[in-house]
Amino acid sequence: MSETDLLLINPSGKKNIYGGLSDSLSGVEPPIWTGLLAAYIRQKGFSVRIIDAEAENLSPEITAKKIMEIRPLLAGVSAIGANPSASSTPKMEPARDVLDNIKNLSDSIKTFLYGIHPSGLPERTLREESADFICRGECFNTVLGLLKLLKSKDEKGLYNIKGLWYRDGGVVRDGGWGEVMNDLDELPPAAWDLLPMGKYRAHNWHCFGHLDKRHPYAVIYTSLGCPFNCRYCNIHALYSGKPGIRYRSLQKVVEEIDILVKNFNVKNIKVMDELFAFKEDRVLEFCDLIIERGYDLNMWAYARIDTVTERMLKRMKSAGINWVCFGIESANIKVRKGVTKGRFDEEAVDRAITIARAAGLNILGNFMFGLPDDDIETMEETLRMAKEFNFDYVNFYVTMAYPGSQLYEEALSKGIELPTSWLGYSQYGRDTFPLATKHLTNKDVLRFRDMAFEEYFSNPKYIGMIEKKFGQEAARHIREMVKLRINRKLLSEADSTGRVR
To answer: What span, in angstroms and rounded, lies between the C-alpha atoms of 339 and 405?
Structure first.
């Protein structure tokens, strides 16, 4: 009998997902959902181990061999990253490779897939992949129930486990959604001791000014979920398909930060919440608890244009939250409203950026090119806004119809062309295949995005600001970053004349 009840695997796909950017620029983020699931199951009395193949740079073949050495009762493969909405679907390719290698080596180890993508497409995933089970939605109690049954060998009980999908002959058994954890304090701190903490690395921009201190790095949640319903976002597939937000007690959150600081010497931290800067009183209380401890942290968190306040932002800076990320997406309000992201206008953007800068915060701007109502003029408007604000960093994304999102369902119903492989949903890979808009082809969108990236980060105004604010090393780093080119299959196909487009 196996000594390990549950083995959780974070598959490695960063080379295909991030291309050359994975070598030094992109972050190497702890698989927080894997850590949370491991901690919850361990707390219930089961033995648990983790293989983070991504952090350890393990191939699917080596990963499978390690799994065979451990021979767990149950192996779970994740299709989710620390950027949940965008990093689930591209991980399906490496997840498939690991699952197939397991099945080639052994039929006795039961396997399951979990994450946003399999939650958004449970039946299709079960039919296409070699996993024995799909855990849909929050899978804490789903996995717990499955483990109990496997230990007791009572397979008839599979019918009664919420969120568990499986094949019964040629029939797919629909387990619905997994139970949502209403009291987040039932979740212990992530199982950091099971993860290779020395391997994790903050994003390059997060450590401008001290690029040699990107290790160690951790991510935390203070809440789960989002009450909003943007059409391009698939995050609700983690939470039973419904908008909503639940909170951990701040005392529990800070106790986890204590563990990270004292046990693992962590300084760089990402606050994963979809809506951290949402309730002013809660943000102030969190910051006060951190300030009391006197930690010298370098944190970043997401913020909303329409919920930040001057008082909130000043306190965040005092607590060591040095970066805020605003999801502006588009400069054009009509384009934003087209995806239900239209609650703020340009005046609100200007106000939020002004008070964030006055608080001493560095600003990361998130923008999307290729939203359904985008044309060349609106995308140029978005690029112009980014350059005028001269953010400390920007993420320029192309719009994807991620499985689990409204855009995905709309694309299917309208016959809009989608990627032919899950790697086509990666933002920075060779296979990137964005959505076409009402006015532009997907090639137009991808070409504009890559041009916008080079134009923004080559702008002398931007380089001068970076050098003045963070030093010559950060400016040199940016110049080197711009030299990297992503080989895009979509943009390098030869036309009928043989010319490369």
So the answer is: 11
36 to 51, 75, 356: CA distances (angstroms): 14, 15, 32
pLDDT for 30-43, tens place per residue? 999 999 999 999 99
Q: Report if residue 320 sits inside a domain.
A: no
pLDDT above 60 for 18:
no
User: What is the SS3 assignment for 47?
Assistant: coil
| Cα 363 → chain centroid | 19
> Element (H or E) spanning 255, and its range?
helix 250-264
Q: Percent of the chain scored above 70 by pLDDT?
A: 94
- Rounded to the nearest 10°, the torsion over CA 310, 313, 317, 323 is -130
- List Cβ neighbours of 237 (8 Å cut-off, separation of 6 or more): 116, 117, 119, 120, 137, 403, 404
**442-458 and 376-389 helices, crossing angle to 10°:** 20
Instruction: Please check whether residue 131 lies inside any domain of the structure.
Output: yes
Asked whether residue 450 is assigned to any structural domain, the reply reads no
Residue 141 neighbours by CB under 8 Å, 6+ apart: 162, 163, 178, 179, 181
Number of domains in the chain: 1
pTM for the complete prediction? Answer: 0.95
Confidence tier at 497 by pLDDT (50, 70, 90):
very low
Give the per-residue SS3 of 402-470: CCCCHHHHHHHHHCCCCCCCHHHHCCCCCCCCCCCCCCCCHHHHHHHHHHHHHHHHHCHHHHHHHHHHH
Instruction: Give ∠ CA 303-307-310 in degrees, rounded to 5.
Output: 85
On whether residue 11 sits in a domain, the answer given is yes
Identity (one letter) of the amino acid at 119?
S
CATH of residue 23 = 3.40.50.280
Range of the domain at 154: 6-173
Q: Tell whether omega for the bond before 72 is within 30 degrees of 0, i.e. cis.
A: no
